[in-house]
Amino acid sequence: MPDLVELLNSECFCISLDNQALKSALESEIGQPGLFELVRERCPHLFAANPVFVSPQHMARMAQVVRAVESVVALPAYRAQVLAQSPAIAQEDPGGARGAFFGYDFHVTESGLGLIEINTNAGGAMLNAVLARAQRACCAQMEPMVPPPASAQAFDEAIMAMFQQEWRLSGHIRPLLSIAIVDEDPQGQYLYPEFLLFQQLFERHGLLAVVAAPQDFTLRDGALWHGDVRIDLVYNRLTDFSLDTLPSSVLRAAYLQRAAVITPHPQAHALYADKRNLVVLSSPDQLAALGVPQSTRELLLANIPRTELVDPANAERLWRDRKSLFFKPFAGYGGKAAYRGDKLTQRVWQDILAGHYVAQALVQPGERTISEQSESGPARVLKFDVRAYVYDAQVQWVAARMYQGQTTNFRTPGGGFAPVFEGPAL
Predict the structure, then answer these.
(1) Contact 370, 382 (CB under 8 A)
(2) Would 361 disulfide with which of 42, 105, 268, 305, CB 3.0-4.6 Å?
(3) SS3 content of the chain, % helix, strand, coil (to 5)
(4) Cα–Cα dist 90/83, whole Å
(5) What is the pLDDT of residue 376?
(6) Domain-terminating residue out of 341, 362, 383
(7) Domain that holds residue 332
């Protein structure tokens, strides 16, 4: 018999996205005029129609896994091992900043969960704060499950506290005055509306905030500048994780010279987001060799799917077992160049062998029905993963991404970011 959370994900349509509330949140409560239309025109599948339900036990287990991973990353032996194979800039002391907005991505079903990857430039946090303000319950029984507006407001305050903490941890006593939100061609990014929301948040808290591309900065007098504005902190959304491309050269110099705080930084990516780290975190022998306590090893091994490097020595076996595997590039992000083994062709397999990939045991994603059975056809069922936004080993917020296909894509009608509500206990 299905558990209650599974029933809610398959049969509950009582809570849905309220577009008028969404417009209010985007344009007046925390956003700016025209932002709702910008979202609707440029990214119509950004917000899912319905929430995802997760049991309290799984919510607690995700937090436990986060803390377990963080405890391993804190070990000197782990850091030495990982940084030895990382780019030189990752071996540079980041100056105290921990890294803002890590994203721990899980597949969650009624039978268990699996941490499939960690990202250090996880997008969507501000969008999910907006989404939490725009949920509508159509019956009294479900009303208690909709979080109060105060929860989203508290998340806004936690975001600000995080950036202020990054500034203080980097050794600064004077107040943080300015933040730059940086990505390649920010206005062309799919999540550009989120950059505007961050800019609004920072400005509401008295900071000067700009949205810019990496080449828009100069370095002079020991400081980072955007035009005539001195930039204290860079909120880094670049996928140039090592800052080694020409457009990132000024940011790279600013990071190395401590001319500005850059968060998340190259070392954070190396320690957390490089997919090779999942090999360590899912290996009983490597965890034991690092001195990880037995209880922590058991937790990680039970909740991180076994991952191994793809190399000529195991290529034949991995090809044979491909239907139970998922293949990801070391420095991959956003599902790019990632493949389910059962979808592989020989041509793609040769690309994988020639590249830098890991093979991860396949963990099925959760499923959410987003429309009821009707005369026009069957109910639509989407996959979902769950993202825990994390700072300093603490889960700040939990959201889901609903999709069709191999990986999250924000191209699925009815899919996109979805709020996560705690269902009844199992």
Answers:
(1) yes
(2) 305
(3) 40, 25, 35
(4) 7
(5) 44
(6) 362
(7) 306-362
Residue-wise DSSP of 141-178: TTGGGSPPHHHHHHHHHHHHHHHHHHHHHTT--SPP-E
Kindly state the tokens that stand for 70: 């963080």
Q: What is the pLDDT of residue 131?
A: 87
Chain-centroid distance of CA 140 in Å reads: 33
Let me know: does 167 contact 232? Beta carbons within 8 Å: yes
Helix (H) / strand (E) element for 357: namely strand 357-361
Number of domain units in the chain: 2
Say which residues have a Cβ less than 8 Å from residue 254's Cβ, sequence separation at least 6: 217, 219, 224, 234, 260, 262
Contact 268, 122 (CB under 8 A): no
The answer to whether residue 195 scores a pLDDT higher than 90 is yes
Strands of 15-74, DSSP E: 15-17, 52-54
Q: Is the per-residue pLDDT at 86 higher than 60?
A: yes
**Between 7 and 388, residue with greater pLDDT:** 388
Average pLDDT over residues 65-81: 98
Q: What is the pLDDT of residue 141?
A: 65
CB of 60 within 8 A of CB of 354? no
CB contact burial 321-340 (16+ within 10 A = b; e otherwise):
ebeebbbbbbbbbeeebbbb
Whether 233 and 375 map to the same domain: the answer is: yes
Find the distance separating the first CA and the last CA of the chain, reported in whole Å. Answer: 12
Three-state secondary structure call for residue 411: coil
User: Is the same domain home to 281 and 358?
Assistant: no
